Amino acid sequence: MNRLDKIKDDKQNKSNCNNQNKILELDLDYLERGGGGTLAVGGSPSVEPSPDSLDLVKVVLLGAPAVGKTSIIQQFVWSDFSEDYVPTDRKHTFYPSVIINEHLYEVKITDVPVIPYFPINSYYEWAHYRFYGLRNATAYILVFDLSNVETFQYIRTLRDQMVESRDMRNVPVLVVGNKQDLLCSAAPTAASGLQQLAMAESACGDSREKRRNIVNLVRKHWKCGYVECSAKYNWRVIAVFKELMEMIDALECTGGVRSAEPPPESSTGQANENRCAVA
């Protein structure tokens, strides 16, 4: 074998080795989905297509404990709600298909345990598995409890950390107030008299003022979307994802150039929320 043939053989072997390494690379998103593809040794690979081979939209839900993040996801994906509160102890992923404005999107929804902070760089993201995928999400849904507006401070801190640690210019963020059914739901008893009624009305007034301040902050200063819903009664849960997908779809149509204007008001109950079809 002459020197030229030997060089050609070396290049061919190196190319085959690179191709084999590409085949054997593990796609963590694919493994999370539970794919069971096999590799045919010595022949062409027989691998189920990875979700990343599709145009995936990666959505991450974040929020304080017990605000209803998992319930929102389960109502959207399965139309199911559980009265029992079970804290999320590990990361869960869901893969619904969504049609919005005649565009089909494969959506990866990630439900993670409560995180103490948003990972400031890739090292912190990979140091703990629950942080994996947070920094490269397509969009975020930040959830708080409308009946406990103090939970808004948690997502406010997270949002500040997100802005400081990654480029958020073309990353849609939707703030969701859950548990709308609990707002001022406790009616005074006949024995309580006018004093308890006055106290209840005062508490509701304070809550409404805090909510107005939150909406003003989110829409005018953060330039983010805002939706109120009730996961328990499946009220406006579809509207949550419809609003988010319209924000994502608008970015796709404009080539990733995000409008400086906040999304249109959608927290009223008059919106037609069924135009977002879930496959």
Low-confidence stretches: 17-27, 35-53, 266-275
What is the straight-line distance between the termini? 59 Å
Strand content: 15-25%
Helicity range: 25-40%
Q: Main sheet, how many strands, which sense, barrel?
A: 8 strands, mixed
Count of DSSP-assigned helices: 7
What's the order of the H and E elements? Answer: HHEHEEEHEHEHEHE
Task: Please compute the radius of gyration using only Cα atoms.
Answer: 24 Å
Summing up helix and strand content along with how strands pair, one would put the structural category as: alpha/beta
Question: What assembly state would you assign to the polypeptide chains in this entry?
Answer: single chain
Overall pLDDT level: 77
What characteristic shape results from the CA principal axes? globular
Can you count the beta strands? 8
Protein name: Ras-like protein family member 10B
GO molecular function: GTP binding; GTPase activity
Pfam family, one: Ras
